[in-house]
Hints:
Layout: E1 2-9, H1 16-28, E2 33-38, H2 52-63, E3 69-71, H3 74-78, H4 84-94, E4 98-105, H5 106-109, H6 118-124, E5 126-130, H7 142-145, E6 154-157, H8 166-174, H9 185-194
Parallel strand pairs: 1-2, 1-4, 2-3, 4-5, 5-6
Helix pairs in contact: 2-9, 4-6
The protein binds adenosine-5'-triphosphate (ATP) and nicotinate mononucleotide.
Amino acid sequence: MRRIGLMGGTFDPVHIGHLLAAEAAREAADLSEVWFIPTSVPVHKPQPGASGAQRRALVETAIAEHPSFRVEAAELDRQGASYTIDTVLELRERYPDVSFYWIVGSDMRDDLPHWRRIEELAELVVFIALERPGAAGEVAVAEPALPDYLRGRIVRGEMPGIGISSTDIRRRCAEGRTIRYMVPERVRTEIERMGLYGSRTID
Ligand SMILES: Nc1ncnc2c1ncn2[C@@H]1O[C@H](COP(=O)(O)OP(=O)(O)OP(=O)(O)O)[C@@H](O)[C@H]1O
Ligand SMILES: O=C(O)c1ccc[n+]([C@@H]2O[C@H](COP(=O)([O-])O)[C@@H](O)[C@H]2O)c1
């Protein structure tokens, strides 16, 4: 069975933490592909500053050179609240011969018990959790604290800790500060060209 990783995120904007997490997950679980899934309406955080089309375009730009990465627009096409269970059920119907893995940073791993229909979701995907500096779960021993339905359903992947967040990038843009090397160079120039997050050209 083909093994596909699903990298869900708001990507407001995509940054190198997302890209490294996806690549580390690909290696950790021997995935043949990783599909990036931008949310339409995130269910647990403020609404994005950039539109779905803008966030998707930036992800397309960021992953263009990776032969095994692509964008899956299921959540943007569906619109409304982006619950992962709905996305996974839809993808399983469209791709019955695929094993799906859902990729998360360690901050989200600890949040998993609060996700909609998580017991059902944990039967449909294996989660791959990547360490994220500053996340509460970073130093905790995760497995014993997990509810039964998540035991054995979370694979840990290793990646160099990247203390970058979309929040930090949006703030930097608004303050006219550099985001060079925090995002791929073409993403940076696109953000400036579109004037996103209050950015202006700082070259
Ligand atoms: N630096 C990072 N290292 C590892 N995983 C990350 C990192 N940044 C984000 N992730 C993971 O990528 C997924 C999507 O994250 P998201 O698009 O919300 O980015 P974010 O930087 O957390 O955004 P924001 O700052 O707006 O909350 C989540 O599972 C998150 O844990
Ligand atoms: O389905 C849920 O209940 C749920 C709750 C929190 C987060 N998620 C998903 O987790 C992914 C990462 O979320 P975020 O906010 O870090 O972009 C994204 O695809 C969200 O839709 C999903």
